[in-house]
Amino acid sequence: MRIGISSWSYPYTIGNKAYDLPAHPMGLLELANKAVMHGAEVLQVADNLPLHNISHEELLQLRVLTEKHNLELEVGTAGLEQDNLLKYLNIAQTLGAKLVRTLPHSGKDVPSLDVAKRRVDEVLGKFSDAGIILGIENHDHYPSDWIRKLIDAFNDPHLGVCLDAVNNLGLGESFREVLHILGSVTVNFHCKDYTIRRKHSMLGFDVEGAVTGNGFLNLELAIQVLPANISWVLESWMPWQGDIEKTVAMEEEWVIKGLYNLRAFRETNEN
């Protein structure tokens, strides 16, 4: 298990257009320096901080910084379109990253299984030749068995799942069910913790994010099922705190506490 953070560890600090933006949104190198400061072993830069909008010079600065501090990089985007995936394969090669995470869909483009297979087939050979893994994230647009069918259509170790702990709650699938279906083909784990509470009226439930290790996420089950050599990165569904300053401050607290909890969990399971 290699522990790290993601650009989705800081969704408000980077900028969430649904809420007030910070006065100075976090940029790429600031995120990398946060990862170094907090002792992360992995940094995954995903679609909320799109790397194709970053200059080549800044990408090279990122590579120098991460190599200096032995910080493993993973890159991320959305969708299965050939041009975009090959663009991110090139970015991964520029950065020395060994994993490209993507979603099966992007905006209004929500492909069928047959279309998704065709799109993966168009690019997978190039990923394999480059020695870079393509990780497809489970999401509430698709049930877990749909993702599994897509992965199983190919017999290639350079294709797998970026397993998100809670996305499939939107389809009524529990983490246990998702883990059972996708765990063995997982190449990266998004440690997004959560709580489920009864509404005050007792008519239904509210689902919210939680500090990783403090909520309902079953880390013990995860470590039993997931491959031993993958990255575990923090992602956050932290609720809005009323204003951007309070929200950004709490986001930082959640990162610090979540990394502490994951390290303690790893240490316990190594002894």
Folded structure, characterized:
With 271 residues, the protein is α/β, with parallel strands linked by helices. It has a single domain (2-270), classed as TIM Barrel (Alpha-Beta Barrel). The chain has helices at residues 11-14, 28-37, 56-68, 82-95, 113-130, 144-152, 175-182, 219-225, 244-270; strands at residues 2-6, 42-45, 72-76, 99-102, 133-137, 159-164, 186-191, 193-198, 205-210, 231-234. It has an eight-stranded parallel barrel with strand order 1-2-3-4-5-6-7-10, surrounded by seven helices. It has a two-stranded antiparallel sheet with strand order 8-9. The longest helix has 27 residues, at 244-270. The radius of gyration is 18 Å and the shape is globular. The chain starts with a strand and ends with a helix.
Number of domains: 1
Task: Please list the strands of the largest sheet in the order they lie side by side.
Answer: 1-2-3-4-5-6-7-10
Morphology call: globular
Proportion of helical residues: 40-55%
Order of helices and strands: EHHEHEHEHEHEHEEEHEH
Distance between the termini: 14 Å
Rounded to an integer in angstroms, the radius of gyration calculated over CA atoms is 18 Å
Average predicted confidence as pLDDT: 96
What is the oligomeric state here?
A: single chain
Query: How many helix segments?
Result: 9
- Fraction of residues in β-strands: 15-25%
CATH fold name, please? TIM Barrel
